[in-house]
Amino acid sequence: MAAVVAGATLVVAAFVIPTLHLGTVTPLRQRGERAGVADAAPIFGWWDAHIGWGTMPAIAIGAFGVAWAPAQARRLPWRHLLVATWATSAAWAVSLALIDGWRRGFVDRLADPNEYLYQVPSITDIPAALRSFVRRIPDFQGDSWVTHVAGHPPGALLTFVWLDRLGLGGGLPAGILVVFAGSSAAAAVVITVRTVHDEVTARRAAPFLALAPTAIWVAVSADGYFMAIAAWGIALLALSIRRSGRPGWVLAASSGLLLGWAVMLSYGLVLASLIALPVVLTAANRATALRRAALAAATAVAVVGIFDLHGFWWVDGYHAVQQRYWQGIAHDRPIQYWSWANLASIICAIGFGSVAGIGQALDASALRRRRGLNLLVVGSLAAIAVADVSLLSKAETERIWLPFALWMTAAPALLPPRSQRWWLAVNVIGALLINHVIFTNW
């Protein structure tokens, strides 16, 4: 409760302080007023009380989840639980998106002029695009990349280029891909928690992951896809450490491929290593864990090296992105506000039930005993802390920090079982409230 009170205070302050007109940051405006204000705070969106086609399905899914999901999570066979968690997460994300309408809420989200799909038609020669990628990151050059392409390594753009070349161009196929991948991350976390903690806790976490408020920004945002790639990379690493012989090595190499690809999707996902570290620390056989982690790391580096051979060096891209960031909206987002309001945004994304779980996860005794879920939550907090002090994450963190926030939504599994249903209801109601009162940009 202390954690929830502190979190609620932070959120209230983040919404109220901009309305005091102190000249540092702009409060959320009504939809239609100066659409696209970059410094609007603390959620990127506009006030707009509305309902849509997804309203009734979202309420129904949320009510079903609160009433029956915890019991079903205890009873279902393990494989059925994973499928149910993934399917529920997808349905929850789509229903929340459709509150904003079919086109605005789903089909057109990835077709925005600042998004990857806008750049796809210009990619006629992939090797040439890679060789010129770093040069085109800074703004005001005539042929600079659009905002989201410039802000990420080329893996993100290539994903949608390849999808287009398969004959699946446009916003709808891209949206389906992102939802399908993003919602699968819930199952990846359930697998990881079972592997590093125990099955009972993993089953308790499943409803919270399936109905996490983060789903608002998973459908449809490419960051949901990034989140899933990183989550499955960590899940495979956890499984590789617990498997002996060839299967363990294959899983470790597969983990490295995914984590290397994650780094080529988003510069910030190098911080996923802080979430992978607890997987190694909780292993019973530390020597095996280190060998498997070393193989995963080497494979991830190899993925980065392949891009270097084709003309894109990750480090050069990172420095160019810093230049692009400070050429643009960074100046409209004062650090004296966003250094702490970032955290308020992420609280909105994970829900107060997750905040309560984080308070429980920081139990000193459990951390000394290297309890898996506790360490995963601490790792995600560490990743967010580093991202925050880097000054490269100011605003929009409810979307940008999805790969780290995801793990926090499993934290309520550590709460007393008798209270978990109530905290699940708090998260569901919070997600419905945000999506119906704020017209989010994502």
Automatic annotation (TrEMBL):
Instruction: Show the stretches that span the lipid bilayer.
Output: 47-69, 81-99, 172-193, 205-238, 258-281, 293-315, 335-361, 373-393, 422-439
Tell me yes or no: is Membrane among this UniProt entry's keywords. yes
Q: Can the keyword Transmembrane helix be found in this entry's annotation? A: yes
For this UniProt record, the keywords arranged alphabetically read as follows: Membrane, Transmembrane, Transmembrane helix
Name this protein carries in UniProt: Integral membrane protein
